[in-house]
Amino acid sequence: MPELEEVIDQLWLHNTFAEDPWTVDRAFAAIRDDGEIAIDGLIWALGHKDVGLKLLALRLLREFGEEAKRALQAVEKCLLDGNRLVRIAAGETVRLMQKFADQV
Q1: Of residues 70, 67, 104, 71, the one with CA closest to residue 90
Q2: CATH code at position 77
Q3: What is the C-alpha separation between 39 and 21, in angstroms, rounded?
Q4: CA angle 13, 18, 19 (to 5 degrees)
Q5: Which InterPro entries does this entry report, sorted A to Z (predicted)?
Q6: What is the pLDDT of residues 49-70, one digit of tens each?
Q7: How far apart are CA 56 and CA 41, in angstroms?
Q8: How far apart are the C-alpha atoms of 27 and 12, rounded to whole Å?
Q9: Are 73 and 67 in contact (CB under 8 A)?
């Protein structure tokens, strides 16, 4: 079982890549099998001050789908973030997470 620190290291690693269409795919491939620890790492990233890390975490939570629903409170806090891009991404993520909840 991976440790939370390993997931956090993967998030930082993928955050350093220049933005390209494959960034989220590579990051998701690196943490998708880490289960609850991956979601814990993404929740941690949402509370971090680094905007790039928050944006990556929000995009990755969408990839996890219904598994990510326990991160909803942390995502909703991002709706009040000082950065406009974070607020927009958080809004998109909340809408998607609510859509998953409605399907259940």
Answers
A1: 71
A2: 1.25.10.10
A3: 22
A4: 105
A5: ARM-like, ARM-type_fold
A6: 999 999 999 999 999 988 999 9
A7: 12
A8: 10
A9: no
